[in-house]
Write a structure and sequence with these properties.
Layout: H1 2-102
Length: 103
């Protein structure tokens, strides 16, 4: 009977070792999945922060472009007005010269 109890004890020890190894491996897989989930969460957080920074930069760039376009438009309008004045002056001078030559 003593020998039979020894074999049962060895068998149960082996089964308990296999079960503990299974639980250990499951625990390791769970840790790795939690770490990967945390790294994915960190990556998503970083991407959202970077995305918001890019959006802010784009808004600022668009605002600066709008201001520059507005300034350029105003300068173009002033140049056009100056050219129209020059053209009107030249027309009046031409008319004066034509009157003088006709007289």
């Amino acid at each position: 009977m003593n020998r039979k109890n020894f074999f049962i004890l060895v068998f149960l020890s082996g089964v308990l070792c296999i079960i503990s190894i299974y639980f250990l491996m499951s625990n390791l897989r769970l840790r790795q999945s939690l770490k990967s989930a945390a790294s994915v969460e960190d990556s998503e957080r970083r991407m959202s922060i970077e995305g918001s920074k890019i959006k802010e930069k784009l808004k600022k760039d668009l605002s600066d472009k709008r201001k520059a376009d507005d300034i350029s438009y105003r300068a173009m309008v002033k140049r056009l007005e100056m050219e129209e004045k020059k053209q009107a002056e030249l027309k009046s001078k031409i008319e004066q010269l034509e009157r003088k030559t006709n007289n």
